[in-house]
Specification:
about 140 residues; 7 helices; mainly alpha
């Protein structure tokens, strides 16, 4: 159990953690609540089912993962499991929605976005999976 919480008091991991929290607060609120022009939970999972053939229950699990990651990343609690969940979510998004458009987020007159943004978020989550929550985290407090 200690392996889940073990982390060094590293401030760089705090910056990565909070960056993911802010990003998924904004992006996840589109998926879950329909804010910022999003579809909301059922609209989003229905869209994923129709467009990408992702079962509704998997879409719900993905959106719940996004939602739970926000307070977890802010507090630095269960950072590693949440980071792994986000990595899986981002890998599926990359494969199903972005891969066909190449690397770059935009440009070249394409009608879709490439993997650039998802890859950056995936690598941020990977850093937290490897390093843990860092300084100022509940994980660090619990591992001492």
């Amino acid at each position: 159990m200690n392996a889940i919480f073990q982390t060094e008091p590293n401030l760089a991991l705090v910056v990565v953690r909070l960056g993911l929290a802010v990003t998924f607060l904004a992006h996840g609120s589109m998926h879950l609540l329909g804010w910022h022009g999003g579809r909301g939970l059922m609209g989003q999972v229905t869209n994923w089912k129709e467009k990408y053939h992702i079962p509704v229950w998997i879409g719900v699990v993905g959106i719940v993962t996004e939602a739970l990651s926000v307070p977890g990343m802010i507090l630095g609690f269960l950072t590693r499991p949440l980071a792994l969940g986000l990595m899986i979510f981002l890998a599926v998004a990359t494969w199903k929605s972005h891969w066909e458009f190449g690397f770059f987020l935009s440009g070249g007159g394409r009608k879709g976005m490439g993997i650039e943004y998802c890859m950056a978020l995936f690598l941020m989550a990977l850093a937290l999976l490897v390093g843990g929550g860092g300084a100022l985290s509940l994980d660090h407090m619990l591992s001492r």
